[in-house]
Fold:
Amino acid sequence: MKLLSPKLDIVFKSLFTSADSADILSDFLAAVLDVDVSEINNIEIQNTELLPEFDEQKYSSMDIVLKLKGKLVNIEMQVKKLSDFTERSLFYWARLYARDLEEGNTYRSLNQTISINICDFKMFDCEECHSVFHIAEDTRHEILTEKCRFDFLELPKANTDSRQIRRLKRWLDFFNLKSEEEAEDMVKTNDTPITKAVFILKKMSADDRMREAARIREKALHDEASYLADARDEGMAQGMAQGMAQGMAQGMAQGIEQGMAQGMAQGIEQGMAQGIEQGMAQGIEQGMAQGIEQGMAQGIDKMLEELRALGVDEAKLQAARQNASAGL
Structure:
């Protein structure tokens, strides 16, 4: 018989919230919070739905929500690494913390709210598999309030040889179970809470309805991952196509603009050169014509002056000027 994965959300929820699971849930919480298991009592499983207060708000559902004495705890099993997982964890914590404030009560009546995140991936660049966060002052590291706490358990680091995880390692190994042989080895340790957890997991794995529910859930997760991958690929293809089209359009526009600018510059330069050349030719031609005309006129005047000096009649001189001018 193939064991169901404790990491699958519906298996995880059923495993820790069934009627006969209170003692294994208490042991797990005691290991995470590093307290004696006797301090974990009167566990009250609560509604996991976070209903929107306004139409535009997002509907959310958490895995496990429970209430202890003076504490609210949200336990999340996260298999896939998401880019916004930290923000989502913060959102769940905030909604759960605010949900605890009943009408007419003061803010001081709010319970400590703890977010426990079990991650099937490496979350932080460190060797420790258990990271605990509070709100603290940057330089003095003074804790602002004990009412805010985040725990992250990184399953890939379960084999880390650290004293920190001795109590937790049993549970991390349980969540990492992949075969019935591994389950039998865990039973041989005579660890009562772990042995019971293995027994419940086997019982669930043998239940046809539970196996079918797990199959449907796994298929839904695979389909979702496939849809996301297809959407990502399609988005990348569309982005590349749009980028190429925009690049070509911009390239053509820039080419035309540069071509026009260069053409205008070349046209102006060529026009100026041609204008100067034509102007010089026309100037020379006009200057030569004017010079010849003026020279001839001056020559006629000089000739008439010499004739006048010889006593030629003035009327004849004027007639000669008119004839000479008409010849010009």
Observations:
- The first strand starts at residue 44 and ends at 46.
- Residues 9-206 form one domain.
